[in-house]
Amino acid sequence: MDRYKHxxxxxxxxxxxxxxxxxxxxxxxxxxxSTRDIVEHFAACPQCGYSVQASETLMRFSKGNVQRTxxxxxxxxxxxDETTVEAAATVHSTTTGPAAGPxxxxxxxxxxxxxx
Length: 116
Known about the structure:
The protein is mainly beta. It has one domain. It contains 1 helix and 7 strands. A hairpin with a 6-residue loop joins strand 4 and strand 5. The longest helix has 5 residues. The radius of gyration is 16 Å and the shape is elongated. It starts with a strand and ends in an 8-residue tail after the last strand.
């Protein structure tokens, strides 16, 4: 798991920051990106103790890989933030079938440990 400070992979630097590799292979071409707020994220800021707000971005690639980026920031303006990038070799769905509705991907690493 690679860790980046929030501001280091933003704007013009984002193009210069290489994407993590899953199992030693390139992730492939970017197919889709989705972002959501994580309302069930309960953590305290390590600097001031106030509640942490979190969101995640999922990037799906042509070779079946998924990259998950977790953004965590303090709810107060103390300045703390953290970004965590996880790359997975495969994607499995938590639900199946048309009656199950939209599926939620689970990220599974090459050794089949659940990343999320």
